[in-house]
Amino acid sequence: MKITLLTVFSLATICSSALAGSTSSTSSYKLRPDPEGQFPRLGACPDAHACIFPPDVSQFIPGAYFDLRVELHAYDEDTSKPTPAPYTQFKTTVRKNNGPWSDVNRYFDLPNPKLEEWNFSWVNSIDAHLGTIKDGKPVSPVNVAVSSRAWRKLKFKEAGSYEIKVEYGPKQSYTVKYTVPKKPKQKAKNVILFISDGTNTGMITAARAVAKAHTSGKYHEFLSFESFDNLGHVITNSVDSLTTDSANSASAYSTGHKSSVNALSVYCDSSEDPFDDPKVESITELIRRRQPNKAIGIVTTAYGQDATPAAFVSHTRKRSTYQEISDQIINGVPDWTDPVIPDVWLTGGAEYFKGPLSLNGTDYYKEFSKKGYKVVQNKKDLNNYNGKDKLMGVFRQGSLDVWFERNLYVNNTVGNKAAPDMSGKDALGSDQPGLEDMTIKALETLKKRGGDDGFFLMSEAASVDKKLHVFDFPRAFAELVELDVTIKKTVEWLKKNGEYEDTLILVTADHAHSFDVWGSVDRNYLSGHVDNTAKLNSIGVYGQSGWPGYFDTNGDGFPDNWTPNIVLAAGTSNGPDHYEAWNTSKDEIRNPSITGPDKLTYIPNPEDAAGDYQKGLKWNSNLPTEENQGVHSMSDVFIYSNGPGSDLFKKTFENWDLFFKMAEAMDLLRPTKKEN
Ligand SMILES: *[C@@H]1O[C@H](CO)[C@@H](O)[C@H](O)[C@H]1NC(C)=O
Ligand SMILES: *[C@@H]1O[C@H](CO)[C@@H](O)[C@H](O)[C@H]1NC(C)=O
Ligand SMILES: *[C@@H]1O[C@H](CO)[C@@H](O)[C@H](O)[C@H]1NC(C)=O
Ligand SMILES: *[C@@H]1O[C@H](CO)[C@@H](O)[C@H](O)[C@H]1NC(C)=O
Ligand SMILES: [Zn+2]
Questions:
Q1: CA of 228 to the centre of ligand 4 (A)
Q2: Residue 297 above 50 pLDDT?
Q3: Residues in the active site (predicted)?
Q4: Residue 391: is it exposed, middle or buried by C-beta count within 10 angstroms (0-12/13-18/19+)?
Q5: DSSP 149
Q6: Nearest-ligand number for the alpha carbon of 143
């Protein structure tokens, strides 16, 4: 026994030293940790002068498209010195499975792309960011002279490990490694991806406490998705920052690649043009190429150009390029795969589909109609649609009104002039569908269109995030409860229509807010006292944290009363100066902070009823002065999963891996015969 063990040990030693030797002699590859600092030169560029996008440790599906961009950065951080000459001479090579290196042009059989040159300013410190005056001069950013080449629409046909190397300057080189894994086949006919924007586990717990009855502290039932087969954790940080916005987190879900703040399904290069950044193929584009008969649906309570839906239909460095995003839905982008043209599109954002804000004044309702869409603009017409044509529903300019304004305080929508036909009339809350109406109609239509090939649906509860940013907790709870009811109705619909066993359902968030509850509050006591000590004592903790007064007696899944005296003592870990009284804003949406007299910092809003201005508890800012709302936080988010393939989602994984897991579940990993 002892001898065997020794033999194994010594063999292993020999193997690993032989391996180390061969690695150092044939490869310049070295995994480099991200550097320290708040102001990276450019996302995912650990080398001092070279950047390759997609960056190191990227993963691809065999045959999935991507753009490759190499950038070389000449600069001197000592800004009193001139900018060095750009690196115009460089060589880019590729190799597979540690084989011989070959020129990128030759390997992908493409002409050498033209050399591009530009400069950008690298803001490398807080002082440069704020333009701090030092020695009588503002601290200036570093001028970076860039030379670059971009190869468009590449793919790795086969599984394996690949390296891309750029050699530049007298002796320098930088190498990145990609993997193209081979995975087993597994099949779900349909996938429904519910994204509850900005929702953390604390919000799930709070929504349960608000919506579900309990006796002796035991719940009668949980939220609908809490009985799902599996539960996992998703790590949400972006390619180059701790906290993410919805653009790069949705891109990670959509493409399998992490990105930077504001970027949609591209890696960010340093050039000015927001449309020339290296693109990566999205799950929706891959479905169109590999399973063209599968139906695709996009549903959101936000405007359709907003980050989460946009990541599934567009490629841009700037999430605010709403006009072009609208156009890309049906027209796509040049030199890339075909546009997604979803079978179902149910959103807000009318102002970018018609009228002065739409791209070149185009009437996209007409353009969508020409592509065979039935276009609807209110809840009644949506519910009445029973056809088989593609369906476009746009119900409001901007984001749809939230559940409160669609159901409780409809009068708050009088005078919004937000009608989706751009007539200047109002889009009344009662005329707008909710997430449930849209999701069920999407399922009906997708089933008709996808038939045996099934469907992929992304359905987003967008305003959980939007209401958490402004600490409008009752409205945020209602948005999440609406998602809960929607998922319950979805499961019922799937069972009734014979699709339940074939459908993978995912319920996740794109990132967290640092929301939690630390007790309950007596609102009357709080507003009935003037001195701060008494006000603080309105909060009950531990043994005094009795239940809030929400009750759902009519069984519709929503509490019947949204303004009980005892409510949750809730908040997030960050915010600008504001007041908190946990009142429900009845007359308008909450806006806790406004621009102060100095025009630079934010102060509590005198109109903030939920904060009970100067009578509620004072909350002091812990944010940089440019932030007028609470910001996202970095904790991992939940992912509940149910049905075929749900085992894949029961662990802790990174946001980019969701794409690969969905692709595996839908059997999208292998190139079709037509492709090769
Ligand atoms: C970049 O900056 C350098 C130094 O300021 C300048 O000489 C050069 O012309 C600039 N290049 C471009 C493409 O703007
Ligand atoms: C919009 O107009 C600009 C300027 O005339 C033109 O370059 C562009 O191609 C137009 N875009 C579309 C989608 O029509
Ligand atoms: C809404 O406004 C209408 C017309 O101004 C009014 O008659 C109605 O009472 C209002 N409803 C509520 C719930 O305030
Ligand atoms: C906040 O709620 C308390 C208790 O219901 C009430 O007395 C007070 O007037 C409310 N404040 C505002 C600004 O609505
Ligand atoms: Zn947000």
A1: 40
A2: yes
A3: 246 (phosphoserine intermediate)
A4: buried
A5: E
A6: 1
